[in-house]
Design brief:
Layout (H helix, E strand, L loop, with lengths): L17 H17 L14 E6 L5 H12 L3 E6 L11 H10 L4 E6 L4 H8 L3 E7 L5 H15 L6 E5 L6 H12 L3 E5 L15 E3 L2 H5 L4 E4 L15 H8 L3 H4 L7 E3 L12 H4 L6 H20 L4
């Protein structure tokens, strides 16, 4: 078992070894215990600075990284693109180098273009953490999903995990596919052919175009947000028709195993991807995913702080 991450950056699940994934999950278990205390703060990274560099809207991820950093006693700066020099034409490189010159130790970046965190990782001495780059990856979301599955199922190897929805535009789906297959789960992708890219068949997954067939006997059912902002016309007839064919309803969920858990990375579109009865039902672990994201992001910051520059 490795005892440290190899890279100064966390850019994607694709780059992580099985040992590194397990190390992050085990480290997060320790921080989950910290979060149960009355005083939820530890001095582990006192004196360090985290900059949240978000070029896309975010509630859960940005707030989660901010809280994780504060729980570790770091200073946090939230970079607001609309009020920055980016709107005056400053390049991404110059923005990043300015942030580094101000003493950032970690830069958490979300951007609509795939590859931006990888570019910043090459030019910055600070640790760069990918908080979502285009339709490429969202590694900490996949890690918190693995942590949540393991908490409920005690294992991941051999589980049947059904992922329903907009696979083509989902960075969450890609990171989860990489993580689940590395950890030995059987992955089923469910959705209309317009939303499942051909290349996923090379990733050791099964593809279904029927929710009923794909969800049958699943241990975990994960629905994805319809990324309407990334889609052109022609992918779907309408959101209502999508729900009728692919929405996760209580009736469809009964085809999965009785103890199956229901997951969603958020934000949810109720009545389009998932029925309210299911989202708020006893099998839903959606709010636990949010809580576990805090422990995972604390673990990532802690482990990256120990990588030699």
């Amino acid at each position: 078992m490795a005892n440290a991450l190899k890279s100064k950056d966390l850019l994607g699940i694709k780059d992580l070894s099985l040992d590194e994934i397990n190390l992050i999950l085990e480290t997060a278990s320790g921080f989950k215990d910290v979060l149960k205390r009355d005083i939820k703060k530890v001095p582990t990274l006192r004196g360090k600075t985290v900059v949240n560099l978000f070029f896309e809207p975010s509630t859960r991820t940005r707030t989660s990284f901010e809280l994780a950093a504060k729980r570790l006693s770091t200073d946090v700066i939230n970079f607001s693109v609309p009020t920055s020099s980016v709107v005056k034409g400053e390049t991404l490189k110059d923005t990043a180098l300015t942030i580094q010159a101000l003493g950032a130790d970690f830069v958490v970046v979300r951007h609509s273009s795939a590859g931006v965190p990888h570019f910043l990782g090459k030019i910055l001495k600070a640790s760069v953490i990918n908080a979502g780059d285009g339709a490429n990856e969202h590694p900490t979301q996949a890690l918190l999903d693995m942590f949540t599955i393991r908490a409920y199922k005690k294992r991941i190897k051999g589980l049947i995990v059904a992922i329903i929805g907009d696979i083509a535009h989902s960075r969450v789906a890609r990171s989860n596919i990489y993580a689940l297959t590395k950890l030995g789960a059987k992955v089923r992708l469910i959705g209309p052919s317009t939303l499942i890219p051909l290349e996923v068949e090379r990733l050791d997954v099964e593809v279904f175009h029927s929710v009923e067939d794909g969800i049958r006997n699943a241990d975990v059912v994960m629905t994805l947000r319809l990324q309407l902002e990334r889609q052109g016309k022609g992918f779907l007839p309408s959101p209502e028709e999508y729900f009728n064919i692919y929405g996760l309803t209580a009736e469809r969920l009964r085809l999965a195993k009785k103890d199956a858990i229901v997951m969603h990375p958020g934000p949810m579109n109720r009545g389009i991807e998932i029925e309210t009865e299911v989202a708020d039902g006893p099998q839903s672990v959606i709010l636990d995913q949010v809580t576990n994201g805090l422990a995972i992001r604390m673990a990532v910051l802690y482990l990256l702080s120990g990588v030699k520059r």
